[in-house]
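Quick one, tokens below. Sequence please?
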């Protein structure tokens, strides 16, 4: 048996012993582990009722197997539990371990038509840890992304600034002289008739102010 096959065979007892069928019986777990390990190590010829009773159940070497049927009873219990396990598992096991009636040497055969069990089913605890890790990682990435978006918006707002900042930014961005021109629009200009009437009583003052806003010489008083 090559290393891959041996590894697959060793995984099968682990799945069996951790199932609910075998968890409730420590003796059944010990018996199955013992006979499978002895078979894989090449000691299947030592799997006799007396040797199992001495090695596994700590019976004295001279004990009467006819009076003490602990090995036979436990083997029958293991057979029953194996049948129940494979009945519930269906065709999911790649390796099938059987304990033939009248023998204590397990038979290991390959189930070529098996559909491997889903990783979530075979390792629920590990999957729960992976799910929690993925959830925490996703939340962390979401927080980081939100911070990046907020930071980009803040920096963008700082770059845009107010309308006043945008107006004066070209002035402060250059080292060249800046010429600032202030317009002086005419807010109010009297009509010609009003100007003529008022200029009679204010011939000098009013004419001087109007001439400052109007480049054409005003007409004389009539």
């Amino acid at each position: 048996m090559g290393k891959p096959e041996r590894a697959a065979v060793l995984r099968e007892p682990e799945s069996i012993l951790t199932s609910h069928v075998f968890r409730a019986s420590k003796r059944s777990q010990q018996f199955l582990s013992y006979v499978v390990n002895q078979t894989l190590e090449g000691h299947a010829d030592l799997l006799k009722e007396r040797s199992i009773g001495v090695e596994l159940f700590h019976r004295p070497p001279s004990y009467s197997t006819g009076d003490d049927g602990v090995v036979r009873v436990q083997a029958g219990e293991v057979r029953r539990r194996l049948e129940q396990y494979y009945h519930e598992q269906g065709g999911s096991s790649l390796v099938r371990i059987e304990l033939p009636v009248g023998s204590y040497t397990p038979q290991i055969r390959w189930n070529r038509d098996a559909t491997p069990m889903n990783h979530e089913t075979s390792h629920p605890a590990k999957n729960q840890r992976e799910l929690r890790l993925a959830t925490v990682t996703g939340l962390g990435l979401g927080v980081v992304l939100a911070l990046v978006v907020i930071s980009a918006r803040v920096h963008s707002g700082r770059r845009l600034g107010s309308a006043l900042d945008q107006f004066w930014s070209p002035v402060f961005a250059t080292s060249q002289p800046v010429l600032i021109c202030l317009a002086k629009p005419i807010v109010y200009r009297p009509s010609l008739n009003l100007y003529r009437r008022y200029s009679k009583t204010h011939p000098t003052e009013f004419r001087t102010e109007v001439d400052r806003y109007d480049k054409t010489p005003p007409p004389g008083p009539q």
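Residues 125-165 form one domain. Residues 117-124 have pLDDT under 50 and may be disordered.
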